[in-house]
Predict the structure of Histidine kinase/HSP90-like ATPase domain-containing protein.
Amino acid sequence: MAGQGEVASVTERVPEVPGEPASDDSANSVLELFGDPTIAEVRLPNRPEAARCAREMTRTVTESHWGLPGALVDDAVLLVSELVGNAVRHTGAHVFGLRMMRRRDWIRVEVRDPSRGLPCLLPVHGLDTSGRGLFLVDTLSGRWGVDLLPRGKTTWFEMRITGS
């Protein structure tokens, strides 16, 4: 099943043009190749290019499948990128998991990794060049948190759906 075993080759499956939305065919192919994070957790390799794949999945689900407003889609994509970036940089895991859920008035996105180290929301200053990820999550999401698991943690955020 896609997303369950093979996690090796992300780069050859995700569109190469940064900032340009993929066509529906290419965006849906990301879900076909790796799995649909609304059905089950999708496992991705712990490599920097996996963030691009997670962003594309998030954009496809929120925009094409759920029909959410553009600003909410953009914010969700940014926050997924931040959580995935933290998992890639700070956990040392071989893979991490992405899961997405929608309820009537909100969405929830989860990134699971095998590290039990807790993320830390740091104060942000004007000239800081890093450390803004959780600040963005805290600012743009309705709420966020971390659930400790027997083997790792799930870092999640929720966003309220407005204007749909």
Notes: Helices lie at 24-34, 50-65, 70-90, 133-140. Confidence is low (pLDDT under 50) at residues 1-20.
